[in-house]
Automatic annotation (TrEMBL):
PANTHER family: 4-HYDROXY-TETRAHYDRODIPICOLINATE REDUCTASE 1, CHLOROPLASTIC-RELATED, DIHYDRODIPICOLINATE REDUCTASE. Keywords: Amino-acid biosynthesis, Cytoplasm, Diaminopimelate biosynthesis, Lysine biosynthesis, NAD, NADP, Oxidoreductase. This is 4-hydroxy-tetrahydrodipicolinate reductase. Pathway: Amino-acid biosynthesis; L-lysine biosynthesis via DAP pathway; (S)-tetrahydrodipicolinate from L-aspartate: step 4/4. Homotetramer. It is found in: Cytoplasm. Its main location: cytoplasm. One of its GO terms (biological process) is diaminopimelate biosynthetic process. It is an enzyme of class 1 (oxidoreductase).
Length: 263
């Protein structure tokens, strides 16, 4: 069986290191190279593959290998430009991308197959499919809010997952998220408007990633919580995407739902 060649960006990062370990233990995958900043490369020799701080060097050496990126928005945008030139398929898990940065990724997706998901766990992606039904069945009397908790090292807020959940909830309500999102409450803010979705962020310790959607109704409430216990759940999703994206055509940014439905 031919193995899928993989390049990992940020191989010393929390996600990068998890991906490198799982890739080495997966007989369907082959580690074709890793990219990491020069000051942080020590200890990567044991991977037995090319290591560089220059993504373009590694992508050019390993033409056709799928690049998995869990780094930071500026790194991801530069990588997408490089992948568009070299033709390497790209799986992106990085969150915190601005609208302009998302447009840059979309431009790259016209040239090479690109997959992006703000959360690669099975549970969150099932939740994204189920939430519109809950919104429809509960109706307008139920106020929708959500909260997220992550480790103290996380740089972006709210999490990419919280933003995606909020977007799906707003769409199900028939609202524009930009008009109804409430990311901060303080002071004499008055009564809660009906057309609002509160999104609250907590940070601390080593929490891998918790998301809760609340439906507050008359005399009752529903709370739907997803808790990630381990980064392996995200890494497994990314590796599944890496095996799949190489068989897709450029032209769009592929999602977790599309992958699951096509398999
Ligand atoms: N979609 C999903 O399912 C998930 C998404 N994420 C997202 O993934 C991203 C990374 O998260 P996490 O692993 O916790 O973060 P880390 O900070 O642990 O990892 C980021 C890595 O990228 C490296 N890096 C920075 N600049 C470069 C560069 N120019 N070239 C190569 N590597 C570079 C960092 O190196 P250095 O430390 O030297 O700067 C670090 O090793 C975040 O946006 C997070 O939100 C996280 C988990 C799941
Ligand atoms: O930074 C993290 O750790 C995570 N980031 C993703 C996000 O922003 O939603 C996914 C996951 O919750 C972990």
């Amino acid at each position: 069986m031919a193995r899928t060649p993989i390049i990992i960006m940020g191989a010393q990062g929390r996600m990068g290191a998890t991906l490198a370990r799982l890739t080495q233990n997966d007989p369907e995958l082959e580690l074709a190279g890793v990219v990491e900043q020069a000051a942080n490369q020590s200890g990567l020799e044991h991977l037995g593959c090319p290591v560089s701080e220059d993504a373009s060097t590694i992508l050019t050496q390993a033409q056709g290998a799928t690049v998995i990126d869990f780094t930071a928005p500026t790194v991801t945008v530069n990588l997408a430009r490089t992948a568009a030139e070299t033709g390497n398929p790209l799986v992106i898990g990085t969150t915190g991308l601005s609208e302009d940065q998302q447009q840059e990724i979309a431009a790259a997706a016209a040239q090479t197959p690109v997959f992006w998901a703000p959360n690669m766990s099975v549970g969150v992606n099932v939740l994204l499919e189920m939430l519109p039904q809950l919104v429809r069945m509960l109706g307008s009397l139920y106020d929708v809010e959500l909260s997220e908790i992550h480790h103290k090292f996380k740089k972006d807020a709210p999490s990419g997952t919280a933003l995606k959940l909020a977007q799906v909830l707003a769409e199900a309500k028939g609202w524009d998220l930009k008009q109804v999102a409430q990311y901060c409450r303080e002071g004499i803010i008055g009564e809660r408007p009906e057309e609002e979705i509160g999104v609250q962020t907590l940070r601390g310790g080593d929490v891998v990633g918790d998301h809760t959607v609340y439906f507050f109704g008359p005399g009752e409430r529903i709370e739907v919580t997803h808790r990630a216990h381990s980064r392996e759940t995200f890494a497994q999703g990314a590796l599944r995407a890496a095996k799949w994206i190489g068989q897709q055509e450029p032209g769009k940014i592929y999602s977790m739902a599309e992958m699951v439905l096509s398999e």
